[in-house]
């Protein structure tokens, strides 16, 4: 019988093997075609046990069923459901339209699976061994499930359109000849993209990808020691949350609520750089317990990211950089021990509205956080932190931040200006501690009053009679540079009293000038 003859009537082609004939009939019946032996070691699709002709079907026959297969039996729906089957040859469905439901479990593919520009309803490959999945611009109305599969030469989903969910949970993906394990630039996923406990050995590329709900890499391990990036996802759009956080090990449900007490968890780990520049996230980016292993040249790049909440709660990277330049955050949820040290944190233009520290994060450590991000003095990080603290009602802490800004600025000034800065700091703390002015005034007034009292009554200044001598009032008149109490012009000073009067006048002017400078800063801030 020639190929195609009698197919519309459901007749079996003459050249089918016994395994293929059984698959053909199961397809018409919509039933599962299971060729497992019952021995777990032998049936492992990733193991080394050979599967002979009794478990082998040709990829050409699988394509025939899916693209132009026989009609379903009466009252049944045709579907391809295979378990423990070895598919020989290259499964090439490029450009085809596949209407039947497709689900293959525990199967081995001899060569690559080619699905570029093909159209499906739903495709499920579960725990299969696949040399490579080539599926650029593939279109599914429903799900594309690839959990627990192993891909030995990568996955390509460039510009793919997945109608509902894309599942890569517990998949193991090795890099292709370009160094990428998963190439999914421009991909669109209608609902969730779950790649929990994924193991990737190469670059995961999601440039300009769009995810309709959440993207979960809980418990994933991304390793790419070959090039700079392990996760390359600039301009990524996720309508809800990106999870780079732990997953429960051994549970029936990987995603969802916090695991119960005693449940073993697996962290998100990344060996290689992460690039999320210009990303847009509707709810949050979650780095809970994330662990990054960078080289000195690699970084966690969040340049110009926009997200309502950034949960920066991972382990402190020992090497590499964290870059938040131009990022826009509403709530910054963080831990003191999560941020890298000086020289490895960069956040010029980083804007956040609220600080939500998890655990102790005293102001001294928050100031060290700002200092670590500014190798050279820049006022913006200090002013941003002060504004956020003030908005939260922590005015005293906000003043401490602005005082730290002035002290940091002082170190960049020439010697004369630096000396003047020290004077302002010692006297009134650049105006942020105005109570010091009253203390200094009281000390100088008391010292001057005692000194003039011990020096005795000076001579009067001309024929003005004998006014009463009041050392305290005289010292106060010298200290106040603007207010005239009428005491200085009454008396003539000589010798040490003249030098003492000059010192009090000079100190009074310095004190008044520093108070005025501080008041000006306060008014400008207001």
UniProtKB/TrEMBL annotation:
Q: Which domain of life is it from?
A: Bacteria
Span-the-membrane segments of this chain are: 499-523
Keywords, A to Z, come to: Membrane, Transmembrane, Transmembrane helix
The keyword Transmembrane appears for this protein:
yes
Entry protein name: Oxidoreductase
Q: Per the UniProt entry, what species is this protein from, by scientific name?
A: Streptomyces cadmiisoli
């Amino acid at each position: 019988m020639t190929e195609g003859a009698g197919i519309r009537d459901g007749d079996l082609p003459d050249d089918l093997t016994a395994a293929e004939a059984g698959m053909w009939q199961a397809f018409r019946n919509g039933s599962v075609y299971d060729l497992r032996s019952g021995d777990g070691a032998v049936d492992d699709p990733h193991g080394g046990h050979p599967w002979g002709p009794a478990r082998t079907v040709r990829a050409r026959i699988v394509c025939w069923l899916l693209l132009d297969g026989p009609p379903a039996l009466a009252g049944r729906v045709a579907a391809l459901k295979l378990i423990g089957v070895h598919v020989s040859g290259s499964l090439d469905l490029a450009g085809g339209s596949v209407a039947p439901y497709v689900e293959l479990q525990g199967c081995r593919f001899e060569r690559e699976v080619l699905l570029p520009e093909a159209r499906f309803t739903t495709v499920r490959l579960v725990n299969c061994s696949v040399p490579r999945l080539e599926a650029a611009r593939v279109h599914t109305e429903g799900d594309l499930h690839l959990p627990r599969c192993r891909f030995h030469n990568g996955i390509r989903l460039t510009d793919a359109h997945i109608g509902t969910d894309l599942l890569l949970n517990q998949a193991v993906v090795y890099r292709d000849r370009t160094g990428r394990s998963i190439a999914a630039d421009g991909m669109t996923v209608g609902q969730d993209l779950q790649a929990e406990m994924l193991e990737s050995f190469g670059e995961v590329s999601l440039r300009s990808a769009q995810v309709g709900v959440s993207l979960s890499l809980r418990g994933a391990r991304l390793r790419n020691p070959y090039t700079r990036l392990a996760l390359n996802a600039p301009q990524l759009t996720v309508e809800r949350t990106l999870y780079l956080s732990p997953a429960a090990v051994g549970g029936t449900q990987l995603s969802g609520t916090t695991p119960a007490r005693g449940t073993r968890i697996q962290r998100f780990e990344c060996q290689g750089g992460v690039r999320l520049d210009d990303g847009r996230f509707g709810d949050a980016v979650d780095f809970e317990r994330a662990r990054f292993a960078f080289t000195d040249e690699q970084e966690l790049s969040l340049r110009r990211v926009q997200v309502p909440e950034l949960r920066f709660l991972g382990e402190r990277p020992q090497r590499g950089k964290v870059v938040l330049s131009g990022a826009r955050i509403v709530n910054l949820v963080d831990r003191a021990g999560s941020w890298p040290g000086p020289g490895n944190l960069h956040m010029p233009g980083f804007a956040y509205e609220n600080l939500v520290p998890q655990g102790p994060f005293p102001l001294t450590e928050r100031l060290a956080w700002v200092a670590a991000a500014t190798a050279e003095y820049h006022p913006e990080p200090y002013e941003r932190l002060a504004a956020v603290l003030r908005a939260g009602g922590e005015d005293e802490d906000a003043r401490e931040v602005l005082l730290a800004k002035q002290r940091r600025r002082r170190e960049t000034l020439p010697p004369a200006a630096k000396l003047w800065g020290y004077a302002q700091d010692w006297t009134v703390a650049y105006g942020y501690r105005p109570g010091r002015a009253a203390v200094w005034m009281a000390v100088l007034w008391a010292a001057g009053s005692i000194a003039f009292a011990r020096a005795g009554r000076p001579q009067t200044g001309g024929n003005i009679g004998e006014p009463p001598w009041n050392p305290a009032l005289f010292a106060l008149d010298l200290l106040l540079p603007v207010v005239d109490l009428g005491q200085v012009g009454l008396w003539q000073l000589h010798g040490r009293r003249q030098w003492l009067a000059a010192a009090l006048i000079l100190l009074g002017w310095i004190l008044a000038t520093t108070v005025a400078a501080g008041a000006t800063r306060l008014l400008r801030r207001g």
